[in-house]
Amino acid sequence: MTSKPVAAPGWTGPTLATDSAAAAVRMFENDRASAALGMHVITLTPGHAVITMRVRNDMLNGFAIAHGGFIFALADTAFAAACNEDERVTVASGAEISYLRPAREGQLLTATAHRRHLSGRNGIYDVQVTNEDEVIAEFRGRSRITSMSAPTAVSPEEKVSPQEEVSPKEEVSPPDEGA
After folding, report:
1. How far, in Å, CA of 168 to CA of 176, rounded?
2. Helix, coil or strand: residue 96
């Protein structure tokens, strides 16, 4: 399968013979956060997903390495893709991550998620995040299947393409302490 931008205009998601990951496909069609971070879906099958993201300059912390929040977001996105295995909406009930090595600007990070256990409405998924050469983080997510319906797709003009520039928010002054 070739890489497809998350939520890019016209993207219909990976073709699945059973269409078993319907909730995940609809989720990515509406996922503005993953699109704004430049994430790409490489593989999407029930219980398994591979998502990539290139580390950009605006993702670096004060030590010139990738901010852990962005690595967590990538791992969490792969987890979300893997646990939305059918038409039922599945959400995180908890997650943790261990950072093993830093990621640097320009590196392509790959998050590979696998289902470890699924019983009733609860699941456990492990995600390994690598740079081009080595494991940089290990993530474990706990999922819960809900009774929510998968969202409807947004129109193509409402979607955010990973190639669009993300502009920083206006700077906001802290409130007056005397107010």
Report:
1. 23
2. strand
What's phi and psi for 146, nearest 5 deg?
-105, 180
32-73 confidence digits (pLDDT tens): 899 999 999 998 888 999 999 999 999 999 999 999 999 999
CA distance 170 to 45: 39
- The Cα–Cα gap between 140 and 41 comes to 19
Dihedrals phi, psi of 130, to nearest 5 degrees: -125, 155
CATH tag for 4-150 (out of 3.40.50.10490, 3.10.129.10, 3.30.1330.40, 3.20.20.70): 3.10.129.10
Q: Please report, for the chain, how many H helices and E strands are present, in that order.
A: 3, 7
- Residue 26's nearest CA partner among 42, 12, 40, 8 is 12
Distance of CA 129 to the CA centre of its chain: 12
Q: Are 38 and 51 in contact (CB under 8 A)?
A: no
Distance CA 61, CA 136 (A): 16
CA pair distance 179, 170, nearest whole angstrom: 22
AA identity, residue 163: Q
CA distance 151 to 33: 15
